[in-house]
Amino acid sequence: MENKASIKKLAFSFVLLMGIVSLFSDMTHEGAASILGAYLSLAGASAAAIGFVSGLGEMMGYSLRLVTGWLTDRTKKYWPMTILGYVIDCMAIPALALVPKGGWVWACSLIVVQRIGKAIKKPAKDTLLSFAASQTGTGKSFAIQEFLDQIGAFLGPVVLFAVMMLKKSEDMYSVYSVCFALLGIPAIVTVVLLFIVRRRYPEPEKFELSPKEVLPFRMNRSFLLYIVAISLFAFGFLDFAIITMHTVRTGLIPDDTLSLLYAGAMAVDAFSALFFGWLFDKRGIKVLVLSTLIAAPFALLIFSVTARWALFLGVALWGVGMGAQESILKAAVTSIVPKQNRSSGFGIFQTSFGICWFLGSWLMGVLYDVSPVWLVIFSVVMQIAAIPFFWLSDRTHSFTAS
């Protein structure tokens, strides 16, 4: 009994430490994400171009996980894949400080490289966490991970806001370059901490016992319905860069407070992840029906109502959608995919999500250039369309609540 309690304690410690790694990682790339839309717009990119690049980055960041997930399962090199991905992911952001004025194409290339790094690390990292989560509760473990992750996503934009306030009299493009260079500090901390965790926990896969009988992973009906649901949700869930671009164009808040807007969204994301992750352990996948209903009107508020209260409420609802999706998606994969195929399972889910995020963000960027009304209609309809599939997946599910 003491041995079991000791293993659970070690597993929980691993979840917390990897959460702290994610905290500094998200300080880096989510800090950058808070100003990317305005930065690219200043560099000369159109709304369609920003939507395309944002979506392409997400597609690369997700679709390549099908390959990296499969490769991780084949090689079982969980740590090397995780570390390589983190290094590429984190170092691409401070490199943006070197992009010359007007070089938005170069900036876009670095954004895509950063997402490729994320594609390399995510299936392996999520699989490592899933091993520990088998001891501590899947919903709770991924919720804690997402909470710490989003604390970093909150702190990054806040730090950039302070920098912008100190340098508000300078050339705005130069201020952005300083911000990206400053993000190199949490990027380095991320990589150093990752090596420390790797040394302390060289084989996290031992947290979860391998089944006596190895059953093949099959695309059952519940699994397919869930993929359809999460894909429709992603199709209508636009990238935050389009929100910041719209905010700049409408002038609802000053440019130097954009990072605070994103920080607010990340704070909502963090607490939503905790709540919906806990709820997943109690109720299963059906909780995504509730979170989608809550999040669906975000585009209506942001793009149809020209008022600060509507912008803030819309961004908060966007944060709810992100928090629920991030925690429950991973918990569900851990519940239905066998240990030996779990990296591939994460890759399949995330690839479907990423391709639809790319297509949706690109299309909504184009629709915005025609009329924001069309963007709103498309976003709301796609998210609502996902709800019946979440419900059907739950009705036919093989998910197990802890």
How would you portray this structure in words?
The chain has 402 residues and is mainly α. It has a single domain (2-202, 218-395), classed as MFS general substrate transporter like domains (Growth Hormone, Chain: A). Helices cover 80% and strands 0% of the residues. It has helices spanning 2-42, 47-63, 65-75, 78-91, 104-136, 138-166, 172-182, 184-200, 221-235, 240-250, 258-283, 287-295, 298-304, 308-336, 342-370, 372-395.
What's the helix-strand series?
A: HHHHHHHHHHHHHHHH
- Can you tell me the overall shape? globular
Kindly identify the CATH topology.
Answer: Growth Hormone, Chain: A
Main β sheet profile: none
* CATH architecture classification name: Up-down Bundle
Number of helices: 16
- Regarding CATH, which class? Mainly Alpha
Rg estimate, integer Å: 20 Å
N-end to C-end Cα span:
19 Å
Q: Looking at this structure, what is the CATH superfamily?
A: MFS general substrate transporter like domains
Kindly state the number of beta strands: 0
* Class from secondary-structure proportions: mainly alpha
- Quote the average pLDDT: 83
Strand content: under 5%
Q: How much helix is in the residues?
A: over 70%
Q: What count of structural domains?
A: 1
Spans of at least 5 consecutive residues whose pLDDT stays below 50 are: none
